[in-house]
Design a protein that fits this description.
The chain is mainly α and 40 residues long. The radius of gyration is 15 Å and the shape is flat.
Length: 40
């Protein structure tokens, strides 16, 4: 069984619309998630 190819095409105006929906706190949370250690 093969996996489905994942390709997302996001236009700059879509990113701007998404960022306007987020508050600063939520945006900060999303950015810090990338740098967190995984808890086992």
């Amino acid at each position: 069984m093969q996996t489905m190819p994942l390709s997302a095409e996001v236009r700059p105006e879509e990113i701007r619309k998404f960022l306007k929906m987020l508050s600063f706190k939520e945006l900060f949370f999303l950015l810090t998630m990338v740098f967190r250690k995984s808890v086992n």
